[in-house]
Amino acid sequence: MVVPPRAIHTFSNPSETEPAEFFMTSTPGYYMDYFRTMSKTVAEGKKLSREETQHLMALFGTFPPDVESEP
Fold this sequence. Notes:
Radius of gyration: 13 Å
Protein name: Cupin
Number of helices: 2
Shape: globular
Structural class: mainly alpha
InterPro entries: QDO-like, RmlC-like_jellyroll, RmlC_Cupin_sf
Largest sheet: none
Strand content: under 5%
Helix content: 25-40%
Low-confidence stretches: none
C-alpha cells in the first residue's frame, strides 16, 4: 500500500477480542518514532486525547485532514 502525502487513511483492528499485528515499511524512516510512541502509549493502556494526538502528529509533520471524515 502506498499512502500519498496528506491522503486521508487509517489503520485499525476491527476485532474487539483478537489482537492484531501490523507490519509496515515506512520510507523515509522518519515516522518510525511516531509509530513507536503511539504503540508504547497503547501498550501502557493509555488513550491520547485529541489534543495530545494532534500534538504528537505535528511533531512528525503529520496533520489531520481539513475536513471531517466518516468513521
